[in-house]
């Protein structure tokens, strides 16, 4: 059951709110004669958020669901209390969130971006290796692709979140740097790349490695930002001197795959 919630976290988040409701109702009911209506509602919404957030942790959902679970009742309660709000801003906000994060609930790979220091290190890696082709799997807004493209290098990115892809495509067209495709990283051809880069999450790393080690050409390089491949010894780990102390894990494709002790 817990596996179902980890795979489809939105179900877990909904369950957390439903389970929290009777708990909060039971906890706040005795206060109904002692506390004014408005402060009582505020307290109930706060408790609802806290209990639901706690339940998302018990269900093993990622940390950002904790924040969503906490804020959701407060946002809904505020909207209801203020009253007479038009429905369209909520619809628009939902649509935007769906266009940006529709793939996050399925693939458990959220959007966060590689910083410029890391992109610059990746460019140096390509220069040192005389690599001319790179691919960013799940390229987000395409910052890495644009930073690495040029001076004889071809950088491409693949992205499947609609709004994120469109933004990356637009930025790439405006700057004339890199090539952005809409697509699923799992179905993307990696055979011609000298370097494949990914900044995803712990969830897909084992399966991703299975794909890359069989499909990438010998002598090419896979670099993962922050998330190592489980049970596979990287050839090198670089800790960068940027603010978030980015770690890059290097997996040369020709290297023998050594299981960890
Ligand atoms: C953490 S972001 C990294 C963005 C970019 N690579 C960077 O470093 O700035 C991961 C991206 O992968 C995208 N993504 C997740 N699953 C994907 C899939 N199956 N196919 C293509 N892109 C995917 C997400 O939408 C998100 O934009």
Question: How would you describe this structure to a colleague?
Answer:
This protein has helices spanning 2-7, 9-28, 37-58, 63-82, 88-101, 104-107, 116-129, 143-148, 162-175, 205-215; strands spanning 133-137, 154-159, 179-182, 195-198, 221-225, 236-239, 247-252. Helix 2 (9-28) crosses helix 4. A seven-stranded mixed sheet has the order 3-2-1-4-5-7-6. It is elongated. The protein folds into two domains: 2-85, no CATH class; 116-252, Vaccinia Virus protein VP39 (Rossmann fold), CATH 3.40.50. The chain is an alpha/beta fold. It contains ten helices and seven strands. The longest helix has 22 residues, at 37-58. S-adenosylmethionine binds next to helix 8 and strand 2.
Distance between the termini: 31 Å
- The CATH architecture classification of the largest domain is 3-Layer(aba) Sandwich
Query: What is the domain tally?
Result: 2
Helix content: 40-55%
The CATH superfamily of the largest domain is known as: Vaccinia Virus protein VP39
Report the sheet with the most strands, covering strand number, pairing sense and barrel closure: 7 strands, mixed
Strand content: 5-15%
Radius of gyration: 23 Å
**Mean model confidence by pLDDT:** 87
Strand order of the largest sheet: 3-2-1-4-5-7-6
List bound small molecules.
S-adenosylmethionine
- Assign an overall shape: elongated
Structural class: alpha/beta
Return the CATH class of the largest domain: Alpha Beta
Low-confidence stretches: none
Order of SSEs: HHHHHHHEHEHEEHEEE
Number of helices: 10
User: What is the strand tally?
Assistant: 7
CATH third-level topology of the largest domain: Rossmann fold
